[in-house]
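Action item from last meeting closed. Structure (191 res):
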């Protein structure tokens, strides 16, 4: 905790979390011809609230803002085939603060997803390349790259079971296995 500048466990008080504001603008809509779906995503994270102790830092190293240009295209349409296949990806830029230093990074991702009846499979390669490693030393490790796979099965209208595996390839020395059960309600807050 001292490396991240977080306060001790013994402080008391109320701090409200961060607020994200997002705008997504569709630049192109996918059609039956060659044209993919293209979306510009701009997300702004408000500054963290003032901590209880002035020397304390933020809760998380989250982006301050980021821009993504997202592109996706169906290779096999669910209307024309029992199996759908979609290729998608994004390139972008993000900026965030880590322990009184600002970092900027080029972001990227490439994904392939498929669906067959109630089964859904997605594989993604992604990461970002920041500059802090080059300016402050290799211990910052801000060029992570990871490969992930996720499989889900829709049991019924309300329940979906899923499992996922994520493997760090560079500057992300973790492997994660996730299992989940999602319940989706028909209740709508606004009609």
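Sequence:
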């Amino acid at each position: 905790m001292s490396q991240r500048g977080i306060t001790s466990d013994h402080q008391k008080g109320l701090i409200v979390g961060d607020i994200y504001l997002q705008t997504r603008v569709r630049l192109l809509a996918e059609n039956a011809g060659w044209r993919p779906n293209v979306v510009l995503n701009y997300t702004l994270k408000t500054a963290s609230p003032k901590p209880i102790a002035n020397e304390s830092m933020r809760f998380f190293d989250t982006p301050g803002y980021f821009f993504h240009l997202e592109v996706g295209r169906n290779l096999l349409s669910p209307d024309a085939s029992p199996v759908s296949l979609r290729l998608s990806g994004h390139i972008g830029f993000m900026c965030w603060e880590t322990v009184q230093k600002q970092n900027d990074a080029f972001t990227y991702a490439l994904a392939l997803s498929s669906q067959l009846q109630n089964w859904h499979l997605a594989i993604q390669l992604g990461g970002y390349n920041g500059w802090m490693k080059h300016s402050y030393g290799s211990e910052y490790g801000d060029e992570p790259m990871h490969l992930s796979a996720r499989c889900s099965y829709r049991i019924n209208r309300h329940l979906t079971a899923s499992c996922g595996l994520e493997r760090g390839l560079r500057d992300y020395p973790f492997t994660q296995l996730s299992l989940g059960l999602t319940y989706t309600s028909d209740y709508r807050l606004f009609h």
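Note appended to the action item: The longest strand covers residues 83-98.
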